[in-house]
Amino acid sequence: MTREPSPLNLNTLLLVPALALAGLACWAVAARQASAALAATFTLLLVPVVFRLMTRTWYRGLVVRGLGLFVLGFHVPMFIFGLCAGARIGCEAGKCSGLVILGALLAPIVGLLFTVVYWLVGRPPA
């Protein structure tokens, strides 16, 4: 009786690139190459996220809800920094435009984070 090989787990495919990136990051830190260490560490964090997004099962409505969360997340920093500017928290009187601009700069980043996190963990409705 012959045993059939078990199907390859997709997570094991990440092991080799993850170990290579971790080794590169360690070498870069030891060689005091801050930019290479930062790039290798950021890539090490980004590879599983991109891999999960590419191999996940997509269902109807996931993309639309993810884009809706982008719009929601986009407004969160603008709302928070706008409230802080209105209440003059962290700025001088009359010079709060820096907080509003910071909120506007962070808005697309936070919106993208909301979307990606939902796409990583989102499940179909029951």
Describe this structure in words.
There is one protein chain. With about 130 residues, this protein is mainly alpha-helical. It has helices at about 15-30, 35-55, 60-85, 95-120. It has 4 helices and no strands. The mean pLDDT is about 85. Keywords: Membrane, Transmembrane, Transmembrane helix. This is Lipoprotein.
Distance between the termini: 42 Å
Helix content range: 55-70%
Structural class: mainly alpha
Number of helices: 4
The count of β-strands is 0
Unreliable sequence segments: none
Bulk shape: flat
Main beta-sheet annotation: none
What does this entry show, briefly?
Keywords: Membrane, Transmembrane, Transmembrane helix. The protein is mostly helical and about 130 residues long. Helix content is about 70%, strand content about 0%.
Keywords:
single chain; 126 residues; mainly alpha; 4 helices; 70% helix; Lipoprotein; membrane
Q: Mind sketching the topology for me?
A:
Blueprint: H1 15-30, H2 34-55, H3 62-86, H4 97-121
Protein name: Lipoprotein
Transmembrane segments: 63-87, 99-121
Keywords: Membrane, Transmembrane, Transmembrane helix
